[in-house]
Design brief:
alpha+beta, 373 residues, 37% helix, homodimer
Chain lengths: 373, 373
């Protein structure tokens, strides 16, 4: 374990050297975990020119020893402030050979109140607002991370399959959400990646619908489910849209024809985008492939969000695919591909898979669902 | 609904008038919900001298109409920035009669990156870092909030009772956590208040233990569970510690004697603190009552956290009881009382209830558990 985290810290040190930073204060708990292996929260990481030290409190003392024995740790005693702890770390030559002149800090996470305390405590240090230094490292997954995301996706799928096998006609959207999240836990999930979306019929036209306590599955024609499990700190993120038993068997042929048409268009957009994914291609170009396919079919006004996003330790790990994303794909990025068509008052269809960018193309990590069409 | 939120906004307007602010930008989603009734996220609230407007995006358009029809809303179109939306709101005389001179913003939530963009966009406005203006209003619950917290606690208890009735000897800490969280959902919970703690034996000596996948209930002597349900935006927070069947029936009499002794001391500290709670008493005085009781019994070194905290829309809603809390209790505050004794290598006992400060004392909102002793 420790080797991967050390390699990540080395990556950040290269950025520090390039930009003349002789210290870096990490305050985002996700980044603290990424750089150390420590999974608690409320803790900061100081990266000095001589060493790395975790600033935490007594609640996490044992956990730190267990999870990252190779990283120094300073434990706040009762009455001591976090900034007092930071001062001790900065003045300890094991971590900083001298008081740093220019130290980076995470400006997209640090609050203004914290920053004001920080510069009040350390007037001798110039704190430089930095953005996404660690997040940029996180975009490229190492083999351990790829394995962890595969596992999270597998658990997501196991939970979904168990749900499809056990759902009853009386279930509301909230019931299906509760069952799905429970079944993912029973399949090995530590938590959910994000609050699951379960939406029937017209509610599926809201891309971020919150599950409702009204309306039973047996009365719905279609269902959209967007879900994912978290395991060992990494997430999966999938969406499936399908006709219910009622949608398939009763009701109008016109409705079914429409569903099948929209489904086919979304699936074609999804497949065309995936077929084009490989290192070196720009993210906006991938987005355009799916968007053009949907527009050509006459539904251009009904796909209002980006095509996908990076996943990793969090569900929106990095930007991903959108009309304005100029970044190029690189090997070992993992992203969602999730085109959708949302027809107000009727419903919505979204198909979302997670793909790993490989040397020559990509691998779909989430393709073993029984109802891909 | 709308009346309560309007009264809260009036409360904030009084603070603004007192301190000479002619605008206020609310960025904490919990505070946005509190002041408007809107439960989505990624949205800001601008409080101008003439009106209030929610700045959101198309995902939440319908939800805003449903949840807070009396608040103005500006919906970000694709390609428009949130700060562009804010500029439109600030220059609309329906909300601000003129460009504000001094506007408050939430310095404990706003990030440095956001603040830098904000002052770059509005060099003509002096943005004043404010702390806890809305949080201070939130300390005193209105009748709707008291009812919501009662409901959340009831659901928490229902889930816990169902767990105690159904738990099997094979269950690990993770299994009990998963069952409990599922059973709270089945009892009407929207979500959990926080990740539940389930800890067997020596792990219960860690006040924030993360449930483990090893070790079965049938092999444990004692269990500590700290949990709560969230419903309609409000939370419950309880802890119970109890001997298992094994702890009660097999093993040493010495162990049971120790458990009973520690339990009795914690319960007496809990009861003594609750008996002293009433408006006008300082929070540190309540903390001291429990701490002194534990110290007098010889366990002063084993109670390392504050006695309790305010609850409300979040589980740590406001400071509450600690050795350094000089604030006075006021009517309609709701707080936890949770003394504990943690003995490394042996286990830990914490008893946590939620109390409502009344005119003359307090009401324990969480006292219908079957195993209070």
């Amino acid at each position: 374990m420790g080797d991967r985290e050390r390699a990540r810290r080395e990556g950040l040190r290269r950025v520090m050297e390039r930009d003349g930073l002789d210290g870096y204060l990490i305050v985002d708990p996700v980044n603290v975990s990424y750089l150390t292996g420590f999974n608690g929260d409320d803790s900061f990481l100081w990266i000095g020119d001589a060493g790395t030290i975790l600033l935490s409190d007594t609640r996490f003392e044992e956990q730190i020893k267990e999870e990252c024995p190779d990283v120094g740790a300073a434990i706040r005693s009762s009455g001591q402030s976090t900034l007092g702890l930071l001062r001790a770390a900065i003045t300890d030559t094991a971590y900083s050979s001298r008081i740093p002149k220019k130290a980076g800090f995470e400006a997209s996470t640090a609050t203004v109140a914290f920053y004001n305390s920080l510069i009040g405590e350390f007037p001798e240090i110039e704190f430089i607002a930095r953005d996404k230094d660690v997040e940029r490292l996180r975009e490229i997954k190492d083999e351990g991370e790829v394995a962890a995301i595969r596992k999270a996706i597998e658990i997501s799928i196991d939970g979904y399959r168990a749900l499809k096998a056990s759902a009853t006609g009386e279930a509301t959207e909230v019931d299906l959400r509760d069952e799905l999240e429970y079944l993912m836990r029973k399949s090995g999930g530590d938590d959910v990646s994000f609050p699951s979306i379960v939406a029937y019929d017209a509610r599926a036209a809201l891309p971020h619908a919150i599950p409702s306590r009204g309306g039973a599955l047996k009365d719905a024609n279609m269902v959209l489910i967007d879900w994912g499990a978290k395991r060992d700190g990494y997430v999966g993120d999938l969406t499936r849209s399908f006709l219910t038993e009622k949608g398939r068997s009763s009701g109008s042929a016109e409705y079914r024809r429409k569903f099948d048409e929209v489904f086919r268009i979304v699936l074609e957009a999804h497949d065309a985008a995936i077929a084009a994914i490989k290192p070196g291609v720009r993210c906006d170009a991938i987005d355009r492939i799916a968007r053009d396919a949907i527009r050509a079919a006459g539904y251009g006004d009904y796909f209002g969000h980006g095509l996908g996003h990076g996943i990793g330790r969090v569900v929106h790990d990095f930007g991903g695919f959108s009309p304005s994303a100029s970044a190029e794909l690189r090997r070992n990025m993992i992203l969602t591909v999730e085109p959708g068509i949302y027809l107000p008052g009727w419903g919505g269809i979204r198909i979302e898979d997670d793909v790993l960018v490989t040397e020559t193309g990509c691998e779909v990590l989430s393709s073993r669902l029984p109802d891909d069409e």
